[in-house]
Design brief:
The protein is of the alpha+beta class. The chain is built from three helices and seven strands, in the order E-H-E-E-E-E-E-E-H-H.
Length: about 180
């Protein structure tokens, strides 16, 4: 697997949903409050809005993150603590909230995290989606010294990690909103 990627097939695409006993607007109010991400995220332990009106398109959030040594332990991924800047790319109350991870130059990358809400059965279905089309600056750095077999292994293991993390995040959001 080389560094090139076709536009029709993303490098990563994970999408999971959960029913939540709350209205789409109430769920949106929680998931768009990025300062609360530590309550549900597997890696984000907090952060702050650094520019723009919070939770609006164009606003930038600096997330504080933490990853343990066990995550794809053989690969040169960031461990311990680090920050990421993310730019809000969609913000429609009660419907969708998305952000793209920025590169070191401050440009939004093809690495987008999304929450979508849809009314369903006296509550709503909350969908969490992650899509990475082209490899990000970080992925290019991680895989720079890997051979094709190591890249295949990394992408498979990282994809499995993403699936597990997104499912855990949704479960935690449901618990936060339903106060379990």
């Amino acid at each position: 697997m080389g560094e090139t990627n076709t536009k029709s097939e993303p490098l990563f695409q994970v999408r999971t949903d959960v029913w939540v006993s709350a209205s789409p607007r109430d769920v949106y109010a929680v998931v768009s409050d990025m300062g609360r991400a530590a309550e549900w995220s597997v890696e984000c332990v907090g952060g702050t809005w650094v520019s723009g009106e919070p939770a609006t398109v164009g606003a930038v959030f600096r997330g504080e993150n933490r990853r343990g040594p066990e995550v794809v332990s053989w690969a040169p991924v960031v461990r311990g603590e680090w920050t990421t800047d993310s730019e809000v790319v969609a913000a429609e109350p009660g419907r969708v909230f998305s952000w793209a991870i920025r590169d070191k130059a401050g440009h939004a990358q093809d690495s987008v995290w999304t929450f979508e809400m849809a009314p369903a059965d006296d509550g709503c279905v909350l969908t969490h989606d992650f899509r990475m089309g082209e490899p990000t600056e970080g992925i290019r750095g991680i895989t720079a010294e890997m051979n094709d077999e190591e890249k295949r292994r990394f992408f498979a293991e990282w994809g499995a990690k993403l699936e597990k993390d997104i499912a855990a995040t949704l479960g935690r959001i449901k618990d936060v909103i339903e106060k379990k």
